[in-house]
Amino acid sequence: MESEVNSTLIILAGGKSARMGEDKALMFDNTSRIQKIAENLGVKDCIILCGNKNRKELFQGNVWADPISVDGILDTIIWISKQIKGRIQLIPCDCFQIQQNGIEYLLRMNGSLPVDENGLKQPLLANFYPENISLEGETLNEIFSDLSVDNGFGEPSQFNNFNTQEELNLIRSEEQKS
Questions:
Q1: For residue 3, what are the CA distances in angstroms to 22, 44, 70, 77, 167?
Q2: Do 82 and 64 meet the contact criterion of CB atoms below 8 Å apart?
Q3: Are 154 and 99 in contact (CB under 8 A)?
Q4: Residues 29-60: pLDDT tens digits?
């Protein structure tokens, strides 16, 4: 698929996971799972952004540490946008419900932000060209303000992210009911 060939997939796996209480990048082996799906889809460039250099050994494949000057997700997106030529697809490591068809959908988007099952824009799942975003923005919404919102995916729960144990427990209880 042409959009896959022309996209660099960035797995965001460098956060502190303070609200979750454990390292989200290592939970459920989700970072590796997303990476394997990307490889199966033919994504040539899949980069794991691991945060500080001490975390590099936690992951396999093309793993980049943030430079010392990068502080937080805004700086990370600005920095990566200056490093990558062509289209970028972000996927955070805490998209625990994302499946192959969800990643395929993201890769087909062209300069868009998907929405989750609550209709909320998910900027950390943005599909964009660096020249089409506002690197001067002070929030994620400002950086991606020129991107269109895409609510056409039939399974938007795949685009949910999880920040607390309570959110994760809701999903676990839903799975046990099914």
A1: 34, 11, 29, 20, 32
A2: no
A3: no
A4: 899 999 999 999 999 899 999 999 999 999 99
Question: Residue 2: pLDDT band by 50, 70, 90 thresholds?
Answer: very low
Q: For 93-130, b where at least 16 C-beta lie within 10 A, e where not — what string?
A: bbbbbbeeebbebbbbbbbbbbbbeeeebbbbbbbbbb
Question: What is the SS3 assignment for 150?
Answer: strand
Q: Place domain 2-177 in its CATH homologous superfamily.
A: Spore Coat Polysaccharide Biosynthesis Protein SpsA; Chain A (3.90.550.10)
Q: What percent of the chain has pLDDT above 70?
A: 91
E-strand ranges in 28-138 read: 45-49, 62-64, 87-92, 112-114, 127-128
The pTM (predicted TM-score) of the whole model is: 0.91
Q: Could you tell me which residue, 176 or 142, shows the higher pLDDT?
A: 142
Joined together, the tokens standing for residue 57 give 């050994």
The whole-number pLDDT of residue 8 equals 96
Rg (CA), the chain: 15
DSSP state of 70: -
